């Protein structure tokens, strides 16, 4: 039952999960997010409207991929 595509799906799911955690932590919320921990260089970039919009788009795309891989893994297993 453990075919190569299930193993590949596990690997993709793990990579997307870690990337999603990272990008969610980069968002600046009330506390400034993880970007504030890196110093003023990243904080100045995070305050830009274009960067924030792209960060939102990447996070949404990763969450959609995460949801799809979760559903596929549940159906296959």
From TrEMBL:
It is a multi-pass membrane protein. One of its GO terms (cellular component) is plasma membrane. The chain crosses the membrane at residues 6-26, 57-76. Pfam families: SecG. One of its GO terms (biological process) is protein secretion. The keyword Cell membrane applies. The keyword Transmembrane applies. Keywords: Cell membrane, Membrane, Protein transport, Translocation, Transmembrane, Transmembrane helix, Transport. GO terms for molecular function: protein-transporting ATPase activity. It is found in: Cell membrane; Membrane. NCBIfam families: secG. Belongs to the SecG family. Involved in protein export. Participates in an early event of protein translocation. This is Protein-export membrane protein SecG.
